[in-house]
Amino acid sequence: MKKDKLQTEFANAVTFVNDYTNPLPADFLLKLYAYYKIANENFENPGSSTPLINAFKANALFQAKNLSKKDAMKKYIALVRKDLGDF
Length: 87
Hints:
Number of strands: 0
Shape: globular
Strand content: under 5%
Order of helices and strands: HHHH
Radius of gyration: 13 Å
């Protein structure tokens, strides 16, 4: 997949998820969070005011830490398609 096509598809998947109105499971959202952060090379600490949420986010990032930016985008797209359908 070409880089531009991958970035466009990733951006479309992110928009689709952001516009999605039905409740989503926490484990699904945590995976998306980790893939998104890695894909955007944003390695700042989670910013929630709730320590438990920060711990879950940090754990999700830790589990995905070996992914490249490109692989994180691909996994984000694949997860959205698998669980929410095509966008």
